[in-house]
Amino acid sequence: MSTRQNGWTKDEDLLLAETVIQFIKDGRTQLQAFEEVGKQLTRTSAACGFRWNSAVRKQHESAIKTAKEHRKQLKKGVNIETSVITIQESEQSPIKSGDDFEQILAFIKDIYNKSKIYEEQAGLLEKIKELDEENNRLQNELISTDEAYQAIVELMEKAREMVLSK
């Protein structure tokens, strides 16, 4: 099978970006992503890596950052379900050349607010995890206390029986 050497299309760039970002998010390497995309597009992994580093990566820095944060949360063992802006959504951004400053500022504020929600969700999930661990500890403590109480009641019952049998 021969490899292609023609120019890259927007769809190929999008496939490359989505695959690399998904691999980052899943904790796999970019090299693995380049190999995967190379197979799909009949290009070498080196060509995919070059395209990624020379043209595509710069367009998706916020998605890469989000994917790295997700990977970091996965490594911590926290399962986070979030509504993060996808690549396609970011490419369909309401900002067009010629937009005025107020429109651009409103778009940036919207993205900022979404990132704050993500941070709050991550914090709340961490708090839920801590509270769940505390709940489990308290339930175990309650079980131990109940067992000790039952043992004391049994001892008192035996002592009462001994006193009454004399």
Automatic annotation (TrEMBL):
Coiled coil found in the keyword field: yes
UniProt keywords, alphabetically: Coiled coil
Coiled coil: 114-148
Protein's UniProt keywords contain Coiled coil: yes
NCBIfam families on file: DNA_bind_RsfA
Protein name per UniProt: RsfA family transcriptional regulator
Pfam family membership, one: Myb_DNA-bind_6
Annotated organism of origin: Niallia circulans
Domain Myb-like: 1-56
